[in-house]
Design goal:
Elements: E1 3-4, H1 12-24, E2 31-32, H2 37-58, H3 60-66, H4 68-81, H5 92-102, H6 111-126, E3 144-146, E4 150-155, E5 176-182, E6 188-193, H7 195-205, H8 211-221, H9 227-243, E7 247-249
Parallel strand pairs: 1-2
Antiparallel strand pairs: 3-7, 4-5, 5-6
Length: 254
Amino acid sequence: MQHIPKTPELSFQAYQRVFAQHIRNPSANAMPSDVPIKRMAIYTEIVYNNIEGVVAACFPVTKSILGAKKWQSLVRSFMANYQASSPIFREIPKQFLDYLESAPIELPLFLTKLMHYEWVELALSVMEVTDELAAPEDVLRSPIMLNPGHFLLQYDFPVHKISINYQPKKSENITTYLLVYRDASYQVQFMELNPITFQLVTLIKNSAFSGEQVLRKLAADNPQIATEIVLQFGAQTLEALSEKGVIVGVKIAQ
């Protein structure tokens, strides 16, 4: 194993850089000479295990699909090549995802979409929401909004179905719509939406209308569907979303 001696010419900052470079990529960077080999190996193992443990907890399906060897290779590549912009441990999974989305690494086409879907659960679990959450007094006549602790998502792969036993080879040209939100008990919930419900939720997200106003806008945007049907089934959908805590009321300034 190569060593880099600590000399008067090697500043403390330079020594730290050599030390860190070896920990990040021990196969390509020599270790400082005055650190015992066994101790250096412990440092290297601890750092790798901590980072791998954080990303593995966030991306369990991804890890199972890739297998141990490929997964370890990706984590090692991330440690060696990515310039992290945050020291906060819970932000490492997003930086890992950012790295894989831009790195010249051959991965299954669906993988980064799956990883984003897996990351959303972590993001919601730590999201700070200060708005008071309460069900609307009347879902049709009261101003309504989406629970602020949510992600409204669309993917060109059915990411919620992907597993070690189901791995699509190509996009099926069918958009998958998903709503992921944190309920009043701070549990992350997942909901698959059909296209018309996705439109409905998007309208709620981008306005502060009453439920009835939202449904009439939805009906106007979909003239191929009878207005009465949109209003009837839309009202049922709004009630269901309110009961699940997806829709909350808007406080009117007095």
